[in-house]
Design goal:
The protein has 9 helices and 8 strands. The chain has helices at 50-53, 80-93, 106-117, 154-162, 174-181, 185-201, 204-208, 252-255, 257-271; strands at residues 9-14, 19-25, 32-36, 58-62, 99-104, 122-128, 215-220, 241-245. The protein starts with 8 loop residues before the first strand and ends in a 5-residue tail after the last helix.
């Protein structure tokens, strides 16, 4: 890997819809790994994981439209297939023709839609605390955030974020809360409604089973947003690997990055390939 060019830093990709913010880290010729954040989050949610992945992967993160440092237009679709299409276009613009795609929470819904839309682009799929269907959702939707009074207060943000972790004393990084503040009520409500609509149409295991892609499901056992036992629903997907992580909640990528990265790297070692 010594002859590879290091691709790092952030930039904006001009898509037809609007600009998408992207971060790249690691060797250009290494197997591509696309990381997709969940609702009300951003590329920064992956920050603790990235240094653990770049020895083996070209790590690509995007801020979905309406999130983080991407554009937040009020006149664009935030439907799941449209967000997935943008993710695929971002990889096209970066010259990536195959990638292992990883999604956290509702980012796993986007990753599933991307696999449906672009099966030739996705070599394997990993879902981290992504509920398989609405029956597994335990809430909260907005955690007491009053959309009529935007942006939310620090107390409201902390209350909402608290359900995203289980580790005692863990403090959500301030920069992630700042990324919530820069959203708009429109982008927040449209994004959450889009995820719900997609899951109402068809549960994720039913979507994934016929696609024939290697699947890893990681779930923190103490998740307070999705019922952790629902991870077993993914066993309906042939060959699915389901790993429950004791003592971790909805965001194992933040709560225990080494443990989460170890599970992910063991999976990608079997299913990723160099692109050069």
């Amino acid at each position: 890997m010594s002859n590879d060019i290091e691709e790092s830093g952030s930039s904006h990709l001009p898509l037809k819809d609007d600009d998408i913010h992207v971060c790249q880290d690691g060797p250009h010729g290494a197997p591509a790994l696309l990381l997709i954040h969940g609702s009300v989050s951003s590329t920064r949610s992956w920050d603790p994981m990235v240094p653990l992945l770049t020895a083996f992967h070209r790590v690509i993160r995007i801020d979905l439209l309406g999130h983080g440092r991407s554009a937040k237009p009020a006149d664009r679709s935030y439907a799941v297939p449209d967000q997935a299409r943008r993710a695929g276009l971002a990889l096209d613009l970066l010259g990536v023709d195959s990638a292992v795609v990883v999604g956290h929470s509702s980012g796993g819904v986007i990753a599933t839609a991307l696999t449906e839309l672009r099966p030739g682009l996705v070599t394997a799929l990993a879902l981290i605390n992504t509920g398989p269907g609405l029956a597994a959702f335990t809430g909260p939707d907005t955690g007491g955030i009053d959309l009529a009074q935007w942006p939310p207060t620090d107390a409201q943000l902390r209350a909402f974020a608290s359900s995203g972790v289980s580790r005692a004393g863990y403090r959500i990084p301030d920069e992630l809360l700042d990324d919530v503040r820069v959203m708009t009520p429109h982008t927040l409500t449209e994004t959450m409604a889009a995820t719900r609509a997609y899951l109402e149409q068809r549960p994720l295991p039913d979507r994934l089973a016929p696609l024939g892609k290697p699947l890893l499901v990681i779930f923190g056992e103490d998740d307070r947003r999705w019922r952790a036992s629902s991870a077993a629903d993914y066993l309906a997907v042939p060959g699915a690997d389901v790993a429950l992580l004791p003592g971790l909640g909805h965001s194992p990528l933040l709560e225990d990055p080494p443990k989460t990265a170890a599970r992910l790297l063991a999976f990608t070692a079997r299913h990723a390939a160099r692109t050069d």
